Input
Amino acid sequence: MKLSIIGTGYVGLVTGTCFAQAGHNVICVDNDPNKVKLLKSGGMPIYEPGLDELVRINVKAGRLHFTHDTKEGVDNSDVVFIAVPTPPNADGSVDLSFIEGVSREIAAAMTSYKIVVDKSTVPVKTGEKVAETIKRYCKAKVDVDVVSNPEFLREGFAVEDFMKPDRVVIGVASERPVAAMREIYAPYNAPIIVTDINSAELIKHAANSFLALKISYINAISVICEMSGANVQDVANGMGMDIRIGRKFLDASLGFGGSCFPKDLSAFITISQELGYNFGLLKEVQRINSEQMDRFVKKISETLWVLKGKKIGVLGLAFKQNTDDVRMSPALELCQRLQKEGAQLRVYDPQAMEKAKTILKEATYVSDMNDVAEGCDALVIATELPQFKKLDLERARKALTHPIMFDGRNLFDAKEMEHLGFIYKSIGRR
Ligand code: UDX
Output
């Protein structure tokens, strides 16, 4: 099918590229001419495993094009996807001005019937507004069907998630756009659930808030474990073997972050409030998450006593593994809090150092994870990167002035670390 994607960020670029890979003809539109120029010249604006190769293959095959002209995208497609940012306002509500602006641009460009699909994460009832706006601003007075088709992509695994989705959610106001939507997603062999537009929009916020809740739940359990001498990993394993609960998203940590969970939680709390419901449960999820960071910082300062002048090595800056994204990164927040206490930092991350440098200016950036501990008073694991498990522990122990490690992601076995001579402090384990 002929598709256009408006917005070439994480979601838009992955979506457009993966649609092209499935054989569709795709035009990606972005209003940033520099980004379009970069993509046209074979460059990549983001790091996402496997994406650069897929872009190359599909551009070469003539199925993937880039432009900064919305009209060109709309004219050359039957289905127009919206994948623009929906950033938070200062009060936690969602700024929908990009969605509104793009809806007007699409309306102005339309000269024939189109299906307009919203992929951006939006408050329930946004689809109704998009449809209203397009109808109001479309001079050609042609028909439109608005569809809600939320994305569930994890950063770092976005291509994999797109190609093998657990489910595809299609929210519609009538049967008319359903066949085309099914055809677009047919190559992925995924279960498709067709709902009304409001339900599809709610599925996204409800799912992300539930996942955040799961993490805060295990983080709260980790506090009880520390107080009682139990082991949170054993508790999570025991809970997770109940298939009604499942083991995923039960890894205790120094808290969740990223561009989705914190933003979506705040948005969902505000949306619920506006609809007349006080979603106190989700406010607790936020409270537990911020307390988890406070507790970890306290653990470090209680052990090292005065942080002023202490040298601390930090492994991990991204908000999670497999990404260069440092937006709302717990690792970066931790670094900033340690710096505020006067600590000097030596930091390493395999992908995120360039992006971190613009925010965390006063740190020493080290190019090999095994050099980070050199001359430090303690080493901290802040991001769950599997490669940190391969750290040369013997070398780290010798390089530290005192062999102290704080593990905010429970990557190592506590007994083994003690056996190796470390003072090892992790989350929810003694
Ligand atoms: C999330 C959702 O998973 C995805 O479906 C949605 O579309 C966008 O938001 P993402 O933000 O990329 O994806 O990351 P995810 O892998 O879900 O992790 C989010 C945060 O939770 C990270 O900071 C991660 O470290 C943390 N986390 C995750 C935990 O602390 N413990 C866990 O068990 C799992």
